[in-house]
């Protein structure tokens, strides 16, 4: 349901993640974005299928798209999915 992610909802989720969970966003880039050299990352957009990050590595800044394992239904589903992904990424370890 891509319509569940109107720009205001995407912006709210991205702002929250970037302001309060920057470490988790960088971890998403490292583990799910296949960018192990990530120094920092910011979430630019989220929709039902995935999230778009801007990733800073020692060599470059790049855009990275991370697909979800299912289509998100709403913001609550996004919340639970992002938490599950960070737990999974932490278990994968550096």
Task: Please characterize this protein's 3D structure.
The chain has 94 residues and is of the alpha+beta class. Helices cover 45% and strands 22% of the residues. It has a single domain (2-88), classed as PNP-oxidase-like (Split barrel-like, Alpha-Beta Barrel). The chain contains three helices and three strands, in the order ααβββα. Strands 1-2-3 form a three-stranded antiparallel beta sheet. β2 and β3 (61-67) form a beta hairpin. The N and C termini lie far apart (33 Å).
Topology, pairings included?
Layout (H helix, E strand, L loop, with lengths): L6 H14 L1 H10 L8 E7 L3 E7 L4 E7 L7 H18 L2
Antiparallel strand pairs: 1-2, 2-3
Helix pairs in contact: 2-3
Poorly predicted regions are: none
CATH superfamily: PNP-oxidase-like
Task: Please report the number of helical segments.
Answer: 3
How many extended strands? 3
Which radius of gyration do the C-alpha atoms yield?
12 Å
- The succession of helices and strands, N to C, reads HHEEEH
Highest-level CATH class: Alpha Beta
Using the 3D structure, state the CATH architecture. Answer: Alpha-Beta Barrel
**Multimeric state:** single chain
* Sheet/helix structural class: alpha+beta
Please summarize the sheet with the most strands. Answer: 3 strands, antiparallel
Global mean pLDDT: 93
C-alpha end-to-end distance: 33 Å
State which percent range the strand residues make up: 15-25%
Shape descriptor reads globular
In helices, the fraction of residues equals: 40-55%
Q: What number of structural domains do the residues give? A: 1
- CATH fold-level assignment: Split barrel-like
Q: What is the topology, as strand order, of the major beta sheet?
A: 1-2-3
Domain DUF2470: 10-85
Protein name: DUF2470 domain-containing protein
Organism: Thermocoleostomius sinensis A174
InterPro entries: DUF2470, Haem_oxidase_HugZ-like_sf
């Amino acid at each position: 349901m891509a319509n569940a992610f109107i720009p205001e909802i995407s912006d709210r989720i991205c702002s929250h993640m970037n302001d309060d969970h920057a470490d988790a966003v960088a971890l998403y880039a490292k583990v799910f974005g296949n960018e192990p050299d990530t120094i920092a990352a910011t979430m630019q957009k989220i929709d039902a299928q995935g999230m778009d990050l801007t990733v800073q590595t020692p060599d470059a800044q790049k855009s990275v798209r991370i697909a979800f394992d299912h289509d998100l239904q709403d913001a609550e589903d996004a919340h639970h999915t992002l938490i599950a992904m960070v737990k999974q990424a932490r278990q994968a370890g550096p």
